[in-house]
Amino acid sequence: MPFSHHSHSGQFCGHATNTLEEVVQKAIALKMQVFALTEHMPRDQDEDLYPEEIKQSITCAGLFKIFDAYYHEAVRLRSAYASQIHLLIGVEIDWIRPSSRQLIESLFAKYQFDLFVGSVHHVYAIPIDYDAALYEKARSHGGGGGPTDEPLFADYFDAQYEMLRALRPPLVGHFDLIRLKSADPERSFRTWDRVWQKVLRNLGFIAGYGGVVELNSAALRKGMSEPYPQAEICREFLARGGRFALSDDSHGVDQVGGNYERVLDFVDVVGIPSLSYLERGETTTDERFPGISPSTISLPELREHAFWT
Fold it and tell me: How far apart are CA 167 and CA 163, in angstroms?
């Protein structure tokens, strides 16, 4: 698979490994064509620091310095490896609360990004994918300690909808991340009609503004049988004319291009005929990112790419 639109490195992310340059070199070694650098955005409230950051005495001010260093290193790498790979420079945003919008837009004003990944990692300002304890804290908050994940799932998709309406991300990250730490990550969303209707609402909105949903292989390395999003969600998005892109959501060189063979099989089973990828050219589809537009590759073409040899 010659593309990834979502990646991290240990140089700029506390729960990843390797330097950003090592990650880029691995993508080149795998003969990838387009590779997006998308380190996490900084956060500006102490209550949003992760346990790993507190342990390392990292402050919010420190996160901004780390992010600034990331951006300038990404620019250097894009120039240094321009003849070998098409690097896109972006950011994975984190919608924690409505006021996140101001912080995100301030980053867009300061840095010249090629894309951003629109993600939700928090519900009620509580992380839902960090560990089981924090997931349970969010679950108890939403359901009052009841026996079901349904209220938390519903509120997750409401938070996602809020993010989608405010920002219209060109790439929507791990659409159904909420299932990762749930009691049954393989559960069909259709079993909860209230949740399923919110899923369909969000998919319709993304398709309406022309957003791309990533097929994120990280779910596979975390023990699930399908990537994000599940097949039932992909089929609904496809029926709405939606487009998909590939992402490994790698957190180090060992995860670059990880499980892409299984993702390709999944694409075939779901019936997705082609995939999109972002690239720089003469066309602009989102005025926030001049010169960036999606291209399309058919599944047969994809299978012939040098990545597989």
Answer: 6
